[in-house]
Amino acid sequence: MHLNPFSYEFHQDPYPTYRWLRDNAPLYHNPDLSFYALSRFRDVVAASQDWRTYSSAEGTLVERLDPRMFEATPMMIFTDPPRHDRLRKLVSSVFTPRRVAELEPFIREVTIRLLEPLAAQGGGDFVKDFSAPLPMEVIFTMLGVPADDRRQLRGWMDQSLDRDRDTPAIPARAIEASMHLMQYWLGLLWSLRRNPNDGLIRGLLEATISDDEGGESKLSDGEIVGFCSLLGAAGNETVTKLLANAAVLLARQPDQYVKLLGAAQAIPNAVEEVLRFWPPSQYQGRTVTRDVEWYGTTVAAGSRILLLTGSATRDEREYADADRFDIERSIPLALGFGQGVHFCLGASLARLESRVALEEFTRRFPRYAIDENRCRRVHMSNVHGFESVPFQVV
Ligand code: HEM
Question: Is the pTM of this model over 0.70?
Answer without folding.
Answer: yes
